[in-house]
Amino acid sequence: MRYLPKSPAERLTMLADIGAQSIDDLFAVIPAEYRLTRDLDVPRQQAESEIIDYFRAAGQKNATDYASFLGAGAYRHYRPVIIDSLVQRGEFLTSYTPYQAEITQGTLQAIFEFQTMIAELTGMDVANASMYDGSTGAAEAVMMAVRVTGRSQAVVATTVHPEYREVLATYAKHQQIPTALAGYDPKAGRIDLAALDAAVTHETAAVLVQSPNFFGIVEDIPAIAAIAHAKGALLIVSIAEAVSLGVVAPPVDADIVTMEAQSFGVALSYGGPFCGVIAVKEQYLRQMPGRLAGQTVDRDGNRGFVLTLATREQHIRREKATSNICTNQALVALMATIFLTVYGKEGIRELAEHNLAKAAYAAQTLSSQPGAKLLFSGAPRFHEFVLQTEEAPASWSKRLLDNKIVGGIELSRWYPELGNATLWCATEMVTRQQIDTAAKVLASAPVEA
User: Fold this and answer.
1) Which residues are CB-neighbours of 359 under 8 A, at least 6 positions away?
2) Residue 267 is part of which domain span?
3) Which residues face 308 on adjacent strands?
4) Are 374 and 385 in contact (CB under 8 A)?
């Protein structure tokens, strides 16, 4: 009865109350040919001890001891053990929407601290309590710009994460927001400013760029902002790698900053859940989606926290809501808050510098191998870089895997013009020895007869 709390007698009583003889009567409206009349073809029931043994054995198959040079929006950073110790406390783990401020001051304060830290990092005036992830944050930012400007079009850089662009395309299609693409300079790997200027019109509501972009290159945000603002468009800067803000100047020239905060102490977890961010200039506050926690005082003058300026569909009439996103990633945002608190300002800077140095060494070492070439080498970058090889990536990837190394991501599916190009990432979790081993494997291509 562990998972079936109703006894057979109770179920019969419930069926009798609704005039049914059996549970099968509830499905009588479904044509017989679509009903399953046999038992499910699943393994026999197992004892709890057997289930635990099964999953322990399955877990041993995970490649946890491989070095990884993967990045592209999901980054492997060290997670201080204190994060899980705190977020697994019942007060946080079981909490839901903090509507009743009287009993949720801890959750509300954590959200408020998260918002404050994000605003400081991004150089914006205010940040919300978090979004689902970086991709939905970017799409919501574009819709926000449409509301603010009263315009209906958007221009998106092709250097924005391709999957972010796919999410935006889904939103834009059903919101009737036409989008145009602005290409990149093939030498620098940055957005082509001339192409951007041509794409932006007086009907453009938003210009969406990413920095560091998908190639790991830091974009010229002031120059892009000048082009967008000259024609009355808002500039949205998407940041897929939050740690970059430890050394990269915050995009203060932007109107809206949207970011994926996964790098701040959130485990990769095979793809999520992650933590999205939207931060804005103060004049756009009331059009910001999601929820905000604000600071106030109670009747005795004591500091307190409440939900404020709630523009969500749950709180106000649907036609006036700024978003249909009905929640925030409070627990995941708490991980980021603890991470930022543990590291502090100097720690985040040191972490970013560590990543910068690792990537510089990896880029130099890998590109110095025969048949390898570093693309976009003249532009400033963070901890990702594009490597082009004469040998097909599928070949050297297999050799790397044999050495327990996961190499870079093939770019041909998104950027076919780059040929045998791959995107590599080197965070603090990659060792010098692993970089040197990867370089030797790249250099060991079989000689053709």
Assistant:
1) 216, 381, 382, 383, 384, 385, 425, 426
2) 82-340
3) 292
4) yes
Q: In what order do the strands lie in the sheet containing 421-425?
A: 372-375, 384-389, 421-425, 409-410
Same domain, 391 and 308: no
CATH number, domain at 213? 3.40.640.10
Residues 239 and 151 occupy one common structural domain = yes
Instruction: Quote the number of domains for the chain.
Output: 2
pLDDT (0 to 100) of residue 312: 59
Domain co-membership, 324 together with 381: no
Q: Cβ of 2: how many Cβ atoms within 10 Å?
A: 5
pLDDT for 323 equals 72
pLDDT tens, position by position, 144-183:
999 999 999 999 999 999 999 999 999 999 899 999 999 9
Give the chain's end-to-end CA distance (angstroms, integer).
69
**Rounded to whole angstroms, how far apart are CA atoms 235 and 214?**
18
Give the model's confidence band at 378: pLDDT under 50 very low, under 70 low, under 90 confident, else very high: confident
Round to whole Å and give the CA distance between 361 and 22. 70
| pLDDT, tens digit, 9 for 90 and up, residues 304-333 | 998 887 765 556 666 677 776 666 788 999
Burial class (CB in 10 A: 0-12, 13-18, 19+), 155: buried
Are the CB atoms for 112 and 295 separated by under 8 Å?
yes
Encode pLDDT of 6-16 as tens digits.
Answer: 888 999 999 99
Q: Are residues 257 and 200 in the same domain?
A: yes
